[in-house]
DUF3899 domain-containing protein
Amino acid sequence: MLKILKVSFFLVVGSYTILLLFSYLLSGRLDASIIGMWGLLIGFSLLIAALPFHKIVFFGGRGIMGAQSPEIPHDEHLHHKVYKEYEKERKAESPKTRQHQDVLSITGIAIILIAVFMV
């Protein structure tokens, strides 16, 4: 966990260093609102990069929304199938993938929090 936090810290510091450098080179001054706006963009893009899109596309249909939607009846068999697929993928998934997702999530949240205070 300490390694994940260290990598996240260096990514946050590195991204804001690059933002400061670009802001100074492009406008000749350090504008906190522009840096904050670009920080929000970078933070949200990192959070989107942490999402497993193949799971969203595969499970994003009736299997997930069936129990919450009043128009579509509840289907226990489909929920059980989705859960079994999730458990099978989770066991087959390498721990490095989860670590990368953790790093991207922590970094994205930290960048967004800093950017909110800058805007």
